[in-house]
Design brief:
3 helices, single chain, mainly alpha
Amino acid sequence: MRRERRGRLSFATKLCQGVGAIPDTVKKSVFNTFTLLYYHQIMDLDALYVSLALAVAILFDAVTDPLVASISDTLKTGPLAGSGVPPRAAARRSQARRRGTRESPTP
């Protein structure tokens, strides 16, 4: 059960939240940088178009993440947490069938 927060967050809480976000931010920056390099240098696409595609993806993510979080918080039952399991299981089963094995492939 959720409790309503009283008062403002302490500096320590804000600091811990910020420090906890550093690995995710670094990972995203490195991924986007190497994605740009890969598509520009290896796939020989114009860097402008690759940058635009990455920008559109980032903007889409910036809009949909808070929207989905708001919907999930409003539902209060958490059905979105498990909604990715069936598609993932179906994809792994499909991969296993293409490989001709009954085992699920290693990630």
